[in-house]
């Protein structure tokens, strides 16, 4: 079955992806439950990857039940009549967002949310956009314009010409960039850069950006697609900074890893262009009842199960134990491996892309799945479920200690 699957992928899906899968000898996934994925041969892997999607694990029963019920009732909207699920879940999402964020537009993906945020910036008169080095906001044309990696951008140039990147945490560069721009300015950033290798932007940098946005009467756009919904040990990473953004992007874990779902949440002022004319932006499948049923159940579980507290507890345990393993390895091998973490968004920096690849493969061979970092190839990320067992953790520690010896 494996060879047949790879041949079909090569012939009809993507040759480069099929080739890489073959070279890495990647297993064929078959089923998933909780923190575990089972391949076609019945081998079980512990999922510490998933790119931030599975904060509730795979197939959380409460989310699955809600989705099944909605499918039996009405999976897609007519787009003509009023949909009560949309109204109900919009309020539920707003209720867990920072104060002053009052309006929601549901999308299908994080990149779509970025696109809408950029449209809102333009509709609110922002002629210039300032983004941050190391950022990742998606790969659609607009999102690529504010994503800082030349390998992704170069084949599609020219992109938006009104975007300027400033060095992460460089206050002088930030000030100078705003001064070069006339009129309203939109600033977009991830409080914690996931694909950038799990770097947390400084308190001073983000507060400076917020103040400069306010001075220009522009928009502060906060990308919480990966860092939000309890992932970093608070409901939103921006909560730790005491900043309320004008626009916030939501995704990844919003539907509990069951149905694609993302969103843009905005203040009344930032959302005003869409409130004046709802036809300025639309999506046939964005905010479908089946996706929103998943989102509603996910929000309920996050609150009922106190997932933020679970993340905080697990993060302390995982980071502490991995740090001890890393320290021992560094001393023995005179290496400089480091760990960066916010909640269950954890980055292992092994200095080079080649070593990151070796670590990823070694962990895979020991049945631990991880995530690579799209904007920082030297960092291997762990973005696990908040429902890990002691058995899962013990397996990670053993596998990680063994994997380090092979890089």
Give short descriptive properties of this protein:
alpha/beta, 407 residues, 42% helix, 7-stranded mixed β-sheet, globular
Instruction: List the strand order in the largest sheet.
Output: 4-12-11-10-7-5-6
Question: Number of DSSP helices?
Answer: 14
Spans where pLDDT lies below 50 across 5 or more residues: none
Q: What does the main sheet amount to?
A: 7 strands, mixed
Short recap of the structure:
With 407 residues, the protein is an alpha/beta fold. The chain is 42% helix and 17% strand.
Topology:
Blueprint: H1 2-12, H2 15-23, E1 29-33, E2 36-39, E3 44-47, H3 61-73, H4 84-95, E4 103-107, H5 110-123, E5 126-132, H6 141-145, H7 150-153, E6 163-166, H8 171-180, E7 184-189, E8 192-193, E9 199-200, H9 203-216, E10 219-223, E11 247-250, E12 262-266, H10 268-276, H11 289-304, H12 307-333, E13 338-342, E14 345-349, H13 353-365, E15 368-369, E16 371-372, E17 379-382, H14 390-404
Parallel strand pairs: 3-15, 5-6, 5-7, 7-10, 10-11
Antiparallel strand pairs: 1-2, 2-3, 4-12, 8-9, 11-12, 13-14, 14-17, 16-17
Polypeptide structure, described:
With 407 residues, the protein is α/β, with parallel strands linked by helices. It has 14 helices and 17 strands. The chain has helices at residues 2-12, 15-23, 61-73, 84-95, 110-123, 141-145, 150-153, 171-180, 203-216, 268-276, 289-304, 307-333, 353-365, 390-404, and strands spanning 29-33, 36-39, 44-47, 103-107, 126-132, 163-166, 184-189, 192-193, 199-200, 219-223, 247-250, 262-266, 338-342, 345-349, 368-369, 371-372, 379-382. A seven-stranded mixed sheet has the order 4-12-11-10-7-5-6, sandwiched between helices. Strands 1-2-3-15 form a four-stranded mixed sheet. Strands 13-14-17-16 form a four-stranded antiparallel sheet. β16 and β17 (379-382) form a beta hairpin.
